């Protein structure tokens, strides 16, 4: 049931949701492994969140929004739009400093690329919890809420994800 949203509703939604846009994009980026698909996913998720903002009863807005991003992604997969790209995200390219030793910059880029490639190799369930914990700094409880998994499962997946990531990084040496 849609209701007409006024400027106050829009302002409340923006105040609640916009601070978490980077976290939503980060999760979308690692789920889709493609910048353009991540942009589309976040846009669709935020449209859904806006539409159903009246149903948000308080609590952790960040976890609520990341849950919507995740559900939107899985709905897209279920509807037959599988992952298309396998483009690893190079954080170093998006955080370039003007100065610095070129050798250090090159080493930093190589390290970031190696870590991103290893992270991209993780199965989705493991990559997802690792990104939520290490990059978005969510608590176990928040991750459990976002993924709809028990905290014990989250802790187990996170431990296994870290082990697999270390193994993948060891292979690249």
Describe the structure concisely for a colleague.
This protein is mostly helical and 173 residues long. It contains eight helices and no strands.
Structure explained in plain terms:
With 173 residues, the chain is mainly alpha-helical. It has two domains: 7-78, RNA polymerase sigma factor, region 2, helix turn helix motif (Rna Polymerase Sigma Factor, Chain: A, Orthogonal Bundle), CATH 1.10.1740; 102-171, Orthogonal Bundle (Arc Repressor Mutant, subunit A). It is 69% helix and 0% strand. The protein has helices spanning 7-17, 21-32, 35-51, 61-78, 102-121, 124-135, 140-147, 151-171. Helix 3 packs across helix 4. The longest helix has 21 residues, at 151-171. The relative contact order is 0.11.
State the CATH class of the largest domain.
Answer: Mainly Alpha
State the end-to-end CA separation: 56 Å
Which stretches are low in confidence, meaning pLDDT under 50 for 5 or more residues running?
82-99
CATH superfamily of the largest domain: RNA polymerase sigma factor, region 2, helix turn helix motif
- The CATH topology of the largest domain is Rna Polymerase Sigma Factor, Chain: A
Total beta-strand segments: 0
Known CATH architecture of the largest domain: Orthogonal Bundle
InterPro entries: RNA_pol_sigma-70-like, RNA_pol_sigma-70_dom, RNA_pol_sigma70_ECF_CS, RNA_pol_sigma70_r2, RNA_pol_sigma70_r4_t2, RNA_pol_sigma_r2, RNA_pol_sigma_r3/r4-like, WH-like_DNA-bd_sf
Domain RNA polymerase sigma-70 region: 19-81
Domain RNA polymerase sigma factor 70 region 4 type: 115-165
GO molecular function: DNA binding; sigma factor activity
């Amino acid at each position: 049931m849609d209701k007409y949203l006024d400027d106050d509703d829009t302002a409340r939604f923006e105040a609640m949701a916009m601070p978490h846009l980077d976290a939503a994009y980060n999760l979308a980026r690692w789920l889709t492994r493609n910048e353009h698909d991540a942009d589309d996913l976040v846009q669709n998720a935020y449209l859904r969140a806006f539409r159903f903002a009246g149903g948000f009863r308080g609590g952790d807005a960040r976890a609520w929004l990341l849950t919507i991003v995740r559900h939107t992604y899985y709905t897209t997969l279920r509807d037959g739009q599988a992952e298309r790209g396998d483009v690893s995200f190079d954080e170093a390219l998006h955080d370039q400093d003007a100065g610095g030793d070129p050798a250090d910059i090159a080493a930093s880029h190589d390290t970031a690329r190696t870590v991103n490639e290893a992270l991209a190799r993780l199965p989705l369930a493991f990559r997802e919890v690792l990104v939520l914990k290490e990059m978005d700094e969510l608590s176990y409880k928040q991750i459990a809420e976002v993924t709809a998994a028990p905290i014990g499962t989250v802790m187990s997946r996170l431990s296994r994800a870290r082990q697999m990531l270390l193994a993948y990084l060891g292979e690249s040496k």
